[in-house]
Amino acid sequence: MSNLSREPLTIVELDLPLCTLVYGVGACTAALGTGYPNKCFNTLKTCQVLAAYNAGTQTLRFAYNQSGLPKGQTIFPALQGVTTRPAEINLSGIDPRTTALGKRARVTVNLQDFTYHDTLTDPYQAGRVDGSAQFSGVGYSPTDRGTFFGKLIARQPYYVGKALRVKYGYVGEALADMRTASYVISEWSGPDADGKVTIVAKDILDLADNAKSIAPAPSRGKLLAAISDTATSLTVTPATVGDEYAAAGRLNVGREVMTYTRAGDVFTITARGVDGSDATSHSINDTVQQSLRYNLERSCDVIRDLLVNYAGVDPAFIDLPTWQAENDRWLASVKLTATITKPEGVALLIGEISQHGFFVWWDEIAQQIRFRANRPLEPADAPYPVSDAANLITGKTQITMGEDQRISAMYFWHGVIDPTEGANQSRNYKKLVIATVDENPYGQEAIKTIYSRWFGETGDDAAAASIAKRLLNRYSITPKIISGVLDVKDRTQVQLGGVLEMTTYLLQDATGATLPEQLQVNYVEEKDNRITFRAESYTFTNRYGLVTESGRPDYGASTVAQRRVGTYLVDATTLRFANGDLPYVLF
């Protein structure tokens, strides 16, 4: 209620690179002359000694033209509008209507251009005026030349991937205390004839878009001479291109994969025709491509490697110990082995792996990429209660049935035959695991097919069966997809990937009585002090038990709390479900 009399405040921040050096001083050897009539603007585009360029960061801030902006900061009142489209997550890649990684969060910022004296944006502004920043010695007035955004885009054309933040708060609130959503810039248009500038930014996972990042990187080396199918060495051209390859690893020429060690441009082949490929002869100028190899790696570690080393994601956005703990608890038996023989989109590769039973998404407020397995709640976790009486806005709740997400049979192809062939064709796999429901009361099959190159050429029946069964357990019953609107007070509890327990008159049992149901959130948007969300059924048809820690008492001596988080071997007499001591599993 205290917020009702407070004036909302929105501030947009741009982080743009700015050289930390001073023109012509120290490491910067630039000097004015006929070739360089003006000092640079300390940006990469205007740098005159690229070898000395040392990138720092300059933050520019924009707000609506209103009173009460934070003091002690330069904030330009040029903001005209901010619109957002929240992220959507695709739980384990099941929803066929979107990509395996879901949809990226998107923000569109509209700004109005203006004239500006360049005091903040030009480190040599005074020299432009008195002429010392020009070889000619003739000064000029920056205010009379161009406009703020016109000059900014000329000096900073390399904006893609740079940070953009939207801060939401109230007049009088410190910048550091405002709720902040973080994105990376993907598009920039303007200024147009009316001075309008539009900047589009997306969440951090946009860096993994197939059009922006690939793995492995394309290799430039070519065979200096033809090699036979028994050759034990090769040389690449042009000269020194070998330094772009790892000192040892895998490479492929045509459809053959080889292992090697390297010295300069000369590769010593340690094995021919590996990973199911065939040794064959190759012609002069055939491309020698560095392969990307993972061998018995955890899913979380592969995802991090792809994001950090190939998509350029800052590792600070990944809490690896938390990822590894989640992976080791729920995906410990799944070890990934694959040889990627040609450059492929990072989003494509992550999407393939996510079908094994997990999902990743960007938490724009916490500024972290989250990783979570397709799993039941931890025993210590509780779903957030949502009900008609306490939370839901009347008349806004809707239920649809996700028939296209139901699964009656899982076909899991694995054991890749040829790593240089297509990864989504059944003919390129030697093994198939089939998981089916015991009974199908729907009377119609709903088949989900997964093609996984991530268990290498030998495959892994046990891991494939576990993944297939777990997905089947969750999606054998047509999930309900429920959307609704909540009050803003629920914002911190209703988040992507979180679990709700909903009680609404729309959820009924066969007698018409209200029936609470657990749901997992895959979309949430805050607008006009309301929270719009969408969630799908969070149902696991089988019961899960957790192995107890060493030294746990037997069932009779265990506390109720211990019984709730452990699995016990019990006989039919001990097995009881009436007193609420769950879970028990009878073997």
Q: Give the number of domains.
A: 5
Number of helices: 7
The total of beta strands comes to: 29
Kindly, what is the distance between the CA atoms of the first and last residues, rounded to a whole number of angstroms? 55 Å
Tell me the major beta sheet.
8 strands, mixed
Give the strand order of the largest sheet, numbering strands 1, 2, ... along the chain. 3-2-1-6-7-8-5-4
Amount of beta strand: 25-35%
Quaternary organisation:
single chain
- Indicate the mean pLDDT: 89
User: Helix coverage percent of residues?
Assistant: 10-25%
Radius of gyration: 29 Å
Unreliable segments of 5+ consecutive residues: 577-587
Shape designation: flat
Structural class: mainly beta
Throw out a few tags for this protein.
single chain; 587 residues; mainly beta; Elongation Factor Tu (Ef-tu), domain 3; eight-stranded mixed sheet; six-stranded antiparallel sheet; 7 helices
